[in-house]
Design brief:
202 residues; NADH Oxidase
């Protein structure tokens, strides 16, 4: 499927048919999400993949009772990881494992460390959340490319998710993405005209 077709046919699915997505296809989507770009390539996110029906049912009331949560095949919880220092150290290890010489990348590492040092705890969360939405974009378009549907959502109570899923303090639920096979009928896309969206400086 061409990318133009993907973005035209993708829609925010409200009701799924509860049919499970083959695990191979789920793993293909996770790889597409994993390859999303991020500032400095720090990848400050953790994506929780929930298939268990009882757990989805438990999350339903703290998700504004949106039917996507329980009718989807899998519920993806996109979380920002505010442990920026830990991500920098992990990325340094990965770069060295990939063949980089430590002395050649130290300047880059130092730049990231300086960036991290200048952020307040609140800014770390905010910055990581903005990065996380890039990965969410890969999820919604990747799902359609693989032949199934998705429903991105912000309507949930993050602290309740933290409590139910027993998440550590650096993991911040930011957005949900239900995936599965849509049971509803997509409506025509309504978007502002290009003249309102873009201002060209040619």
């Amino acid at each position: 499927m061409e990318f133009e077709q993907i973005v035209n046919e993708r829609y925010a699915t409200k009701v799924f048919d509860e049919q499970p997505i083959p695990e191979d296809d789920v793993n293909k989507l996770l790889d597409l999400i994993r390859l999303a770009p991020s500032s400095f390539n720090i990848q400050p996110w953790k994506i929780l993949v929930i298939k268990d029906a009882a757990l989805k049912q438990q999350l339903l009331p703290v998700s504004y009772n949106q039917s996507q949560v329980t009718t989807c095949s899998h519920l993806l919880v996109f979380c920002a990881d505010s442990d920026i220092l830990g991500k920098i150290n992990g990325l340094k290890t990965l770069m060295i494992q990939a063949g980089a010489q430590e002395e050649h990348i130290q300047g880059y590492i130092d730049m990231m460390l300086g960036f991290e040092k200048g952020l307040t705890p609140e800014q770390k969360v905010s910055w990581a959340q903005r990065q996380t939405y890039i990965a969410l974009g890969n999820a919604v378009n990747g799902a359609k490319a693989l032949g199934f549907d998705s429903g991105p959502m912000e309507g949930f109570t993050p602290q309740a998710y933290v409590d139910i899923l027993k998440l550590p303090s650096n993991i911040h639920p930011t957005a949900l993405c239900a995936i599965g096979y849509g049971k509803d009928t997509p409506k025509p896309k309504v978007r502002f005209p290009k003249e309102e969206v873009f201002k060209k400086y040619y």
